[in-house]
Amino acid sequence: MAMAAATLTAWCGGLTDSLCYNARLGYNIGGTAPIGMPATIRSLNEYKMKSNLSFGIDVHKNLKGRWGVMAGLHLENKGMETDATVKNYHMTIVKGGQPLEGYFTGNNCVRVDEWLLTVPVTATYDAAKNVRIKLGPYVSYVMTKKFDGYVYDGYLRQNTPTGPKIGIGNTDSTRGTFDFSDEMRRFQFGIDAGVDWYFSKRWGAYADIAWGLTGIHNSDFKTIEQTLYPIFGTLGLTYKLK
Predict the structure, then answer these.
(1) Please, what sign has the CA dihedral across residues 199, 201, 202, 207?
(2) How far from each other are the two terminal CA atoms of the chain, in whole angstroms?
(3) Are 88 and 103 a contacting pair, CB within 8 Å?
(4) In three state form, how does the secondary structure of 73-124 look?
(5) 39-91 pLDDT per residue, tens
(6) Residue 166 is part of a domain; what is its CATH number?
(7) Three-class SS of residue 240?
(8) What H or E segment, with its residue span, contains residue 53?
(9) What is the extent of the structural domain holding 120?
(10) Is 15 a domain residue?
(11) Residue 53's CB: how many other CB atoms inside 10 A?
């Protein structure tokens, strides 16, 4: 038993010694969008990003030759605000305290804000001494979620595309509002790809892209016709802790 314990301790110590730890600080650039611009969205008039900071710790293990595996824990913010011109866009809104459902034509302002805990697990390949390529899946737990906005300067055809026409103004009392935060999913899955470039012994820069494979809303949410996917790139700095 003593010999077995000594062997296990030595093996675990060797495994721990071969691990490398990195800290990351980055900024997320992107948004939640359908794949392909639908005909109901005629133009994007304005796009604003939120704070969108990303903090993380990664652990890397060399496996064989230039190949390895990396896993991490990242705290990140993903948000945006857009203003788009739409036509016959299916919506559920509240105007003057009254819920309305139908097809809206006019301007649609959307605000999205999420704080997530993300765990990426990627295969790595050292293309050069100071360049590492990464690819693999990720899972995110959405800690806080917000998806709301308002419609203005247009009209709503109630229930059907040819239903009664309801005018929508551009003041607080005449525009329509919506809030679909409760319909957002708690877990998101996707693919993460990127590259790390070390310009010194410990400091480096990185660029990643996280492409969501699941929409930000629950699968049974049908108010918005298109599935909206989180698609964000990240630019930042990394530091080798060990």
Answers:
(1) positive
(2) 33
(3) yes
(4) EEEEEEEEEEEEEEEEEEEEEEECCEEEEEEEEEEEEEEEEEEEEEEEEEEE
(5) 999 999 999 998 999 999 999 999 988 999 999 999 999 999 999 999 999 99
(6) 2.40.160.20
(7) strand
(8) strand 53-64
(9) 21-240
(10) no
(11) 16
CA distance 193 to 173: 46
Extract the tokens encoding 121: 């697990």
Within 8 A by CB and 6+ apart from 214, the residues are 185, 187, 188, 189, 190, 229
Q: Check: CB of residue 133 under 8 Å from CB of residue 123.
A: no
Which token pair is 172?
């607080």
Euclidean distance between CA atoms 130 and 118, whole angstroms: 25
Instruction: Report the half-sphere exposure of 78 (CA within 13 A, side-chain side).
Output: 27
Cα separation, 4 vs 31, in Å, equals 53
Phi and psi at residue 161, in whole multiples of 5°? -60, -15
pTM of the model: 0.87
Question: Does residue 4 sit within a domain?
Answer: no
Cα dihedral sign, 89-91-97-98: positive
Domain assignment present for 37:
yes
Tell whether 73 is covered by a domain. yes
Q: Strand pairing partners for 113?
A: 79, 146
- Say how many domains are in the chain: 1
Are 237 and 54 a contacting pair, CB within 8 Å? no
Alpha-carbon distance of 171 to 176, in angstroms, equals 9
- In tens, the pLDDT along 119-151 reads 999 999 999 999 999 999 999 999 999 999 999
How far is the C-alpha of 152 from the C-alpha of 174, rounded, in Å? 8
Which amino acid belongs to residue 238? T
